[in-house]
Amino acid sequence: MRHMTAHAPGRLPDDTCDRDPIWDRELETASYEQAVERASSLWDKQFVYLMERSPFYARKFREAGVGKTKVRLKEMGRLPFSTKQELKHAIDEAPPFGTNLCVPPAQVKRVYQTSGTTGAPSVLALSRADIESWTVIGTRTYFATGIHDHSSVLTTFGAGPFVAGHTHFVLSRIGSRSVPVAPGDTDRVLFGLKAGLADTLLSTPSFAQYLANRLEKSEPDPSTMELTHIVTGGEPGGGIPAIRDHIQKVLGATVTEVMGIGDIAPSLFGECPQQEGMHFCGDGHVWAELVNPETREPMMIETGAVGELVYTHLTREAMPVVRFLSGDIVRIGPSPCECGRNTFRMRVIGRRDDMFIVRGVNVYPSAILAVVGRFRPRVTGRARVIRKTADVSVPPPVPIEVEVPDGLAADAGLVEEIETAIHSALTFRSRVALVPEEVFGESGYKTRLTVDRP
Ligand SMILES: [Zn+2]
Question: Cα(377) to centroid of ligand 1, in Å?
Fold first, then answer.
C-alpha cells in the first residue's frame, strides 16, 4: 500500500502536472469555524424555504413541536431525523414526486430512480440548480482522488436510471477523457485497458477485484498496462486493505475510493492519494453530522470517532432532506491531511442494516472480508454472511460463504484455517462453506455482504 511514498502530497505517483490538486481551494481548505459560518447562513434560508415549500417538512417539524421560530444550525439536534421509509412514504402520498417536492413540477429538470432493492423504485427529482450542485460536489470528489483534465477515464458507472450516471457530468466538468462502458461489460473493459484508451478505471471494488483475479491468470504482467489509477465506488471494499493491496499489486495502479448517497448527492466523499480515507466534499451544499448509531446522540467529528453519518441539504431545491439517517457507519480519519484539505476524512465500516451481533459484539461483514482476503489466491476475496432470520442477534457458529476459484471447493483444510482466523480476529465462531466462482453468482459487479436464506 505504501509503494508510492515519493509523490507530492495530494498527487498520484505518476502525476507531474503543475495544476493545483485542490479543485476549490478556498472552500476545501477553510477552517472548521469558516465552514460552520457558511453553513449557518445557508441553513437560515433553507429552514424558511422548507417551512414555506415542503408540506412534508412543515408537517414533520410541527409534529415535532418546532414552531415558526427559526431553528439555527447549532440547534439542529432539536429537529427530528428523516428516514428512507419516510421519504418513500412522502412520494407515495402524492406521486410521482411526493409531498417533499418544493418546486413546481415544471422546474424538475432531471429525474433519477433508485435501484429499488427494498421495494419498488423511488424517484429523485432535481431542479436546474440541483443538477449543478451535484456536479460541483462530484467534481471536488473526483478531483480529490487525483483525476485531472489530463486523465483518461474508463467508467463502468452506468448512465442508466441511477444517480451514478451523474458522474458523466462530473468528468466533463473536470475535462478528462471519458470512455464509457456498461456496468459488468468485462470484454469492453479489457479491450479498453489493453488498447491503452484509459489510464484510470472507475468501478465497483468487486469488479476491480474480479478483473485483478482474471488478469493475474491470463496475462504475463497486467501491471504493464497504461492503467495507473482505479477509483472504486458503489459499495465499500476499496478501503479494505486485503482487497486494495491485491488490486494495486496485480494491476500496478493506485486505488482510491469515492462514496455518495442517492438522496443526498451521488458523489460526496473522495479519497485523496494520501489513501487514508475519503474527504467530505459537500461543504456549502450539505451539512454532515455524526451520531451514535444506537442512541442517536450527536457525536464530535474527530479523529477515531465511530458513528452514523446524518445529512442535511443546505441548498437543494427540489427534494431537500433534513437530518437524513444514512445508515453508513464510519470511522473518522486523522486530520489535517497532508494534501492540504481541511475537510474531515472517513472510512466506511459498514451499513447499519448489515450489522449483526454475536454474543453482544457488533460485527460488520466488511471485517469478515478483511480476514478472508488474506487467504488469496486460494480464495477470490468475496464472501457473504447467510442470515437465517431477521434477528440482529446471530447465534454462533455464523454461516459464511467464501468464494473460491473453480476446482478448489473441496479444501477441508482451508475451511478450518479461515474459521480459525475469523475466530482469532473477530472472536466469534463461524461455519465456512467454500463456494466455487461459477456458483457464487452476482457476476462480480457488486456483492451483497449479507444474504437472507431462512
Ligand atoms: Zn487529503
Answer: 32
Rounded Cα gap, residues 11 and 232, in angstroms: 17
Ligand 1 centroid vs 10 CA: distance in angstroms? 6
Please give the distance, rounded to the nearest whole angstrom, from the Cα atom of residue 267 to the centre of ligand 1: 16
**Ligand 1 centroid to residue 240 C-alpha, Å:** 18
Give the lowest-confidence range in 52-61, 111-120, 312-321, 341-350: 111-120
For residue 335, report the distance from its CA to the centre of ligand 1, in Å: 9
* Consecutive H or E run containing 404: strand 398-404
**Separation of alpha carbons 336 and 36, rounded Å:** 17
How far away, in angstroms, is 26 Cα from ligand 1 center? 15
Which has the closest alpha carbon to 261: 225, 228, 284, 286? 286
pTM of the entire structure?
0.92
Query: Do the bridges between strand 430-436 and strand 398-404 make them parallel or antiparallel, or are there none, so unpaired?
Result: parallel
User: What are the beta bridge partners of residue 350?
Assistant: 329
Ligand 1 center to residue 323 CA distance, Å? 26
Strand partners, 400: 385, 432
Average pLDDT over residues 345-350: 94
Put residue 316 in one of left, alpha, beta given phi > 0 → left and psi -120 to 50 → alpha: beta
Rg (CA), the chain: 22
Q: Please, what is the end-to-end C-alpha distance for the chain in angstroms? A: 40
For residue 68, the CA-to-ligand 1 centroid distance in Å is: 41
In the reported structure, the alpha carbon of residue 97 is separated from the centroid of ligand 1 by a whole-number distance in angstroms of 38
**110: pLDDT strictly greater than 80:** yes
142 alpha carbon – ligand 1 mean position (Å): 12
Instruction: Give ∠ CA 362-373-432 in degrees, rounded to 5.
Output: 65
- pLDDT tens profile 239-276: 898 899 999 999 999 999 999 999 999 999 999 999 99
Separation of CA 196 and ligand 1 centre (Å) = 28
DSSP state of 98: -
